[in-house]
Amino acid sequence: MRKKIMKLILTCAMVALFAEATLAAEVILTSFGQSPDVMMVKVVLRKIKIKGQLEKLLYAKDLGDEKVLVTVIGGSSKGLGEAGIDKDEEIERVNELITEARKKGIKVLVMHIGGKGRRGKLSDLFIREAVPMADKVVVVKGGDHDGLFSTILEGKNIEMLSAKSVRGTTEPLQKILTEWGVIK
Amino acid sequence: MKRNLFVVVMIVCFTLPLHMACTPQSASMKAKSGEAVAVAPSLSSKNGMVAAAHPLAAKVGAEILAKGGNAVDAAIAVSFALGVVEPYASGLGGEGYMVASLADGRDVAIDFRSTAPAMATYENFAKTGQKYLSKIKFSAKGYCVAGVPAGVGKALQYATMPLKDLVAPAIKLAEEGFEVNETFSKLTFDKYEKLAENAPDFLNDGMAWSAGDKFRNPALAKTLRIIAEKGVDVFYNGELADNLDQFMQKNDGWTRKADMQSYKALDIAPVKGTYRGYELIVPGSPVGGPRILATLNILEHFNMAVMNWDDPLAIHIMQEAMILTALDQRRWVGDPLTNPFIPEKGYISKDYARQRLMRIDLNQAADPKIWKTERVGEPGAYEQGENYIDVMLAAAKAKKEAAALDGPQTQVPPSTTHFSIVDDKGNAVSWTQTISSFFGTSVMLDGYFLNNEIGNFKSKPVKDSPINLEPGRRPRTTIAPLIIREDGKVRWIIGSPGGGRIGSTVIEILVNLIDFNMDIEQAIKTPKFAGYDSYKEIRLEDRYPEKTISFLEMLGHKVKKYSYPDLYFGGPNVIAVSEDGTFKGVGSIRRLGGAAAPN
To answer: What distance in Å separates the CA atoms of residue B293 and residue B544, rounded to the nearest whole number?
Structure first.
């Protein structure tokens, strides 16, 4: 009986480990604009037990059999400088990446978590590029203060979910990732 | 009937004195609950005024004024409060400078700049294996001995209220918390990587703070409580110094308790100058006051008033003047206590300005390639009040070659905070404090961030440089809190954060006020450009007309645009005093600042 229980525990542990390992490959994250915001989304995912793989400079060729590509928008001149690319190269990278993801049937989630403070010429440029290509969009309060996201999404079949704060993105993320079969 | 009359009389007799006693008391209750003050982005009042980078800090200052405190009392309370509500810009672990014009006629200043600790030597730096001091800026080694608590200690001599009453509002804010605003949120997002690495406890459960979140800092409240109970000396000689010592030893930092114990804030005479008849009271070396005067001395020779803020010729003249004075500042300005010769008198002399203005070519911009080799001046020749004709004739005779610049490329604080205060008694305070970079080292101790002023020294020793790294030396920075008087009366109290943009932003505000006849709100809101020798181009907010920009480019300026309004160009918090004694306070539009006044 004791052996049976031990076996059961071990099996459960293996299943759990396997499940995590599988999940680890299912969500891949990248930044659009090279701000550190994408790191926070990784932390949020960890809180809902999803191990996202983060590649700040993810290229189309790097995509594998992931289920979801999360693109976190946040323009940072400093970040772009450190990454050694300019804004045009960044736009080209993400455009190719999302195009490739769509070809492969990878769902594309675009997130903007920095609120009003993470708006401005550079970020707005990236928002205008990425949002129309998304399957779904998550925006933290303040990010759409002037209706930029809403205007871009007008007439498009792309759902925009809102969150009160970065911490509050757990809820829409859980909903979306459940819908997309990442969370079962 | 008689009985009824007796009762009425008795009621009146008892309640009348009670009512009379209640009137002032209710006012005092109002002050406690915050109802006795008005807070707004811009405000007018005759009862005193506070303008600060955060409305909550401005409110704290106004409440102190409402309770009968003077401008210095309010300044101390605002200094502590800003450390709570803007932990990214200043605080106990930082430094600064206060300039005040007191009602009794005295002009005073307190230098509470940080100092390099004893272990901050080039020998020890070499052991880190790093080439540049900027590489250790975000570690415990980046810290220079903080001056804010000692500065407050010195300021108490002009105050009327006990320290504990002035710290109390900051303790309350830290304990009860406050709503995070957009500036707070943006900066924690920008610095997320460093904060996650060095100060994870500061974050919101591992995340940056979003606007609307409630931020509390119980650790800082505890530290402030210790200071309130034991005095500022506890920071340098008591348990807070012990905490710092242990922290530094554990984290391989350079500062020790002995450094803390030897730190002194300085009572110092402010430096004075004039611009078109206005008297300016500014802090001296090693901060940005002298450069403001030197620049205005040059501009005084041009009829700026016939131009406008967006006139390319006005921008060109100001840009060229600001580059010349920045080059001189870099070469000659440093800590007067640890440098044998700082030619400050020559630098701010009107005659030296005449020589310097001759270097401005109205037809074209000076080539940045020759700035450091051919455009640095020799202000030392004017140190004894010499006349420019004599100096220049003598120089021509001697065929003296222009001195070459040693080229120190120091970092300047991009963060910082400034506040201005005036009371109805005639005291005015201009106070700037900083932790250098936003969040300083990003290392947090006892609820406050440690400054990273070490980055303002040269990475390797250069002969005669005033900013070589030396134990006990105050690094040079650009901060410049100032007071302007007209006919002996305080007219404006001005200052700004913004690193290398502080000088240009303050100068532009002054020219807007004095030459272009703007009111302070306009003067602050008008787009800004940065004239500084670290930038090879004119950096400006994108509200300048395209024609202006094209003209500047025609003159040979390279132009780099920033979205208007950009925090990069500083966050001035300014007060104007009109002839009828009305104070107008304006908080920075670029940082969501506020003004507050007793009702």
So the answer is: 26
